[in-house]
Amino acid sequence: MKKIWITERLILILALFAAIGISVFTKDWILSVLVVLVGYIGWLYYRLIRLEQWLSRGTKVSEVFDDNGFIGIIVQHLYRQKKHSNERKKRTKDILGRLNRNIAALPDATVLLNQYRQIEWCNEPAQYLLGIHGRNDLGQRITNLIRHPEFSSYLDAPEARQYIEVRAPGDTELTIQIRIVRFGDDQTLLIARNNSDQALLQEGLKNFVANASHELKSPLTVISGHLEMLENEKELTEQGQKSLKTAQRQTHKMTGLVEDLLLLSQVESYQLQADEGKRIDCHALTRNIIAALDVSLNKGRIEYSADELFWLLGVKVEVEGICINLIENALKYSPEKTSVSVSWSLNPQDELLFSVSDCGAGISSNDLPYITERYYRGSLTGNESSTEGSGLGLSIVQQAANKHGATLMIDSDPERGSCFTISFPSYRVLKRSEKSTVINFGDYQSL
Fold this sequence. Notes:
Layout lengths: L1 H25 L2 H28 L13 H35 L4 E5 L5 E4 L1 H6 L12 H4 L3 H8 L7 E4 L7 E9 L3 E8 L1 H35 L7 H30 L10 E4 H11 L2 H4 L3 E5 L1 E7 L1 H17 L7 E7 L5 E6 L35 H11 L3 E7 L3 E8 L4 E7 L3 E2 L4 E2 L1
Parallel strand pairs: 7-9
Antiparallel strand pairs: 1-2, 1-5, 3-4, 4-5, 6-8, 7-14, 8-13, 9-10, 10-12, 11-12, 14-15
């Protein structure tokens, strides 16, 4: 910095001597000052023009020019910043290059989508598994390539489920598993893998379970009938009565498991189309379910409400399975003297919501991602550990909801209990004109 001002002072001193010399020669000091001032300004503009030209050409290192004044210091600062910027760009380019090579080497199809769901990047497996044609499809909306209603719904709300399985757009014989991950500024990472072998294995297992369950139903009915006949035997000892009750309880539990397996197999058999199904009176269905519940389990704890009367387009036995499982779970896993709220309502998007809320112990954050998996019981403690169940209830609820294009949402807090909500899409809702009232099944009276 000191050198700069020495140079600038030297230039000013030389300009002063030049002005004095010119004034002595011309005898006109005003003219001499103007000549020197114009010369100094012209020289200064010349230096600024060189700086501007260097900047306009991209501050190339090879074109750096020398200047001992303050222009030179500006050039030095810009030169150092350019050098550091080039180094950072090189390091970033190397990192991105390694990252692209690593992602491209992944066996799963990987696609990067922007906020408009347009394809920004994809690896090689995505080209044959998802039918993306390299650079030609960059900028295309992913929904133009994967035309599946379930995929569009999943893309709108990826937090509702972990993944979906659909047919590959490039080869309908392949089944692919798609997972959506949100990151950054509203960007999306789509990961897809070939799931055909696993799907075939699951299909075979599903058929086996369905067939086995169907074959078990008849012998269990016979066994249950014989056990009922033994109840009337007066010659049974006390130990025999206990054994009979144990056998009846286990038979009842096995029958419930078989019925759940058969219902789950039916739910998973095929995907319900948007216009498929029969009209279901949701209020009548719910009232019948609540009235049929075991009195010892209910004990007037259920509060049922609905905003409007409407029909739901779907499969009655499967919608009934959703309602029964959610209501029974709420009654089982909450204290006896607490209430359970059951409701049907329409949200502003005309989606039909079925909600069941309880005041139980809630679901831990560790169990929540797996609670809808088959046979998963979670971390039960205290009074909950004695609650019997097949572990299929929430799996049936999840699969039946997916089949109807609905979404299962779980809001749980250990301090205030759990709320399970099924959101049925608006195209399955048929409104009715008459209004409904609020019903409290604690005393079975209309309010």
